[in-house]
């Protein structure tokens, strides 16, 4: 029996970050079986038109233009139409863009690695680099556009700071400083008035983005909190973490009111579509009913380097076999 146990307090979003967060235990026979399964399924399960040469880190869907963007360790960001045709390609020769976000109108795509501390914003139509946001002193772990405007973006850096940028001027309007132990997740409410962050110590913080101040802080998970999603028009927050639990929080009272215990490993990604929750661990994605807490569908995965789920128009995408993605429909 081979056991790999690497502590999660390693450098955030390094090339082996997701592997370092996992505890994998397997026999030699099981490893050979997994390898055989991957080879057999590689051409059938992976959506070949959404491919990179190296591991795909993240996928983002643009609602206004119906584009899908993927970013990879090959230092290339690709934008695909929904039929899988490559429309645009942006390369960052200095660093892999480990986090990407579309602007509200779909005109721009922002990307950031962690090492060069620069946020690059591409004009999708002209395929030119429109803006470069510089001046950060720490590596970037997350970026996310506001939901209803194209001139504001949020970045999260590894020194536990949250920056709100005015894009056109390239100025940081406000910096929020968190006492959390390594921010691992961020989500903005649909009205852009609030955001929540999760961290490796399991803490969750909700921030007031109008007055730039902390609203509420609480212990959400016994271990790391890796996934957050607002639901029910912001009245509910769904969180998932290393304790294998998915929790529902009443955001009017900041109270836990429901919990899903269907996972066997850490949860790294969550999406919500009406009453359906899609939640991902490294070897499995679950679809389940938010009201009944009953599992509807299970999707097995193998050889994942990065774990993500992204809603599209009538479907969703998850990581698949390292350098591919899998497009899934709701059964």
CATH superfamily of the largest domain: YVTN repeat-like/Quinoprotein amine dehydrogenase
Low-pLDDT stretches are: 1-15, 17-28, 30-46
Q: In CATH terms, what is the architecture of the largest domain? A: 7 Propeller
- Into which percent range does the helicity of residues fall? under 10%
The overall number of domains is 2
Compute the separation of the termini in Å. 38 Å
Describe this structure in words.
The structure is a single chain. By secondary structure, the chain is mainly β. It has two domains: 51-177, Methylamine Dehydrogenase, Chain H (7 Propeller); 182-331, YVTN repeat-like/Quinoprotein amine dehydrogenase (Methylamine Dehydrogenase, Chain H). Helices cover 7% and strands 50% of the residues. The protein contains two helices and 29 strands. The chain has helices at 17-21, 28-45, and strands at residues 2-5, 23-26, 56-62, 67-72, 76-80, 86-91, 99-102, 108-112, 119-123, 128-133, 140-145, 152-157, 161-166, 171-177, 183-188, 194-199, 203-208, 213-219, 225-231, 236-241, 246-250, 255-260, 269-273, 276-281, 284-289, 295-300, 309-311, 315-320, 324-329. Strands 3-4-5-6 form a four-stranded antiparallel beta sheet, with no helix packed on it. It has a four-stranded antiparallel beta sheet with strand order 7-8-9-10, with no helix packed on it. Strand 20 (236-241) and strand 21 (246-250) form a beta hairpin. The chain is globular. Mean pLDDT is 86; it is low at 1-15, 17-28 and 30-46.
Outline of this structure?
The protein has 331 residues and is mainly beta. The chain contains 2 helices and 29 strands. It has 2 domains: 51-177, YVTN repeat-like/Quinoprotein amine dehydrogenase (Methylamine Dehydrogenase, Chain H, 7 Propeller); 182-331, Methylamine Dehydrogenase, Chain H (7 Propeller), CATH 2.130.10.
